[in-house]
Amino acid sequence: MWYDKFTFFNKQPGLDNQPSEDFFIRPTTDDEFKSISEYAKKPKEDFLIPSELRLPLEYIQLLKYSNGGGIINGEREFGYFGPETIREMYIGYGFLIWAPQILPIAFNGGGKFYTYDFRKNPESPSLYLVPSGSIGHDEDCVFLGDTLEEVLSKTTNVEDELYIPNPNYQPSEKEKLIELKLKLIAIKEDKDNGKINLKYFINAKRQIEDEIKIFNTRI
Question: Knr4/Smi1-like domain: from which residue to which, for each copy (predicted)?
Answer without folding.
Answer: 53-153
